[in-house]
Amino acid sequence: MTVTALMDYAAFIIHGFIPGLNGQSPGTFWMPPQASTLAPEVDWVFYLILWICIFFFVLIVALMTWFVLHYRKREGHAEEETAHHSMALELTWTIIPLILVVLIFYFGFKTYLRMKVAPANALEIYVIGQKWNWFFQYPNGHIDEDLHLPVDTPVQLIIRSEDVTHSLFIPAFRIKMDAVPGRYTRAWVRAREEGVFPVYCAEYCGTQHSDMLADAIVHEPGLYEVWLEKASNLLNTMTPVEAGQYLVNKRCSQCHSVDGTADVGPSFLGVWGREETLADGSTSVVEENYIRESILEPSVKIAAGYENVMPSFKGKLKEEEITAIIEYLKTLKKD
Ligand SMILES: [Cu+2]
Q1: CA 181 to centroid of ligand 1, rounded, Å
Q2: How far does the centroid of ligand 1 lie from the alpha carbon of residue 207, in Å?
Q3: At a CB cut-off of 8 Å and minimum separation 6, what does 164 contact?
Q4: What are the structural domains of the chain?
């Protein structure tokens, strides 16, 4: 590593300590980009607390070290009388921290309120957490695996879970909100810049938790509508086999491979027409109805050797989409 590279690296790290410097930046060593209007505010409170902590850490450790050295027990030094009470000191170290915590509360609460209350005209998008995928449902009913949103527009996310507790985490937007079964939670965002930002699940929700990823895609003005129109009519622009492949890639591939390797679920390679042994010892031929039932009511027939962990896609895949998946599975023949 050259000296300049080291210096660039140091500057990158230090840069991350100074609020305000990273306005429209690609992020710092410490922080993701500030892609939402609330991000700079959140970071400001974070840096305020960080700098107060750094200041007192240095002050306290320095004083402590100095006291230990200065007042250590030595030859020829009589033991000193300990002071019992100092009104001035007591007041100082009560009033200064009081002012500091009131300030932290003031800025923290102000930002918290702004995060809680979305503008009334916000675009509403439903977010569904399900082992182990995020789904986003748009106002026209279209369900997608990624969060698409227009730039500079308030978007209200209404979040729920189909199974266990998940947590919608979009670092670039400074959003982290639990998806709790049996209730709705909310978060909102106004994206500042176009781009693609990662979406995570921040609540450990089972074996594939770390694969519960999606993209937040911020579109430039006008292009969100174009995308929504196109995505909603996917089946009109592709052949069923192409659409089926697309859907399997997006929704099934974290559990089902198409190359013969068994994953959480059986591979789709050669699945069509196979005589499947079920957990109760009976057999069933894999044809249209078997696949449709597997997708809508996965716990009715369990393939032997596998756990009953496949989520139901009822309401998440249209009948035409299920047909498209079936058409695609038919093409995955073992040769
Ligand atoms: Cu999760």
Answers
A1: 12
A2: 10
A3: 131, 181, 205, 206
A4: 3-73+84-116 (1.10.287), 123-232 (2.60.40.420), 234-331 (1.10.760.10)
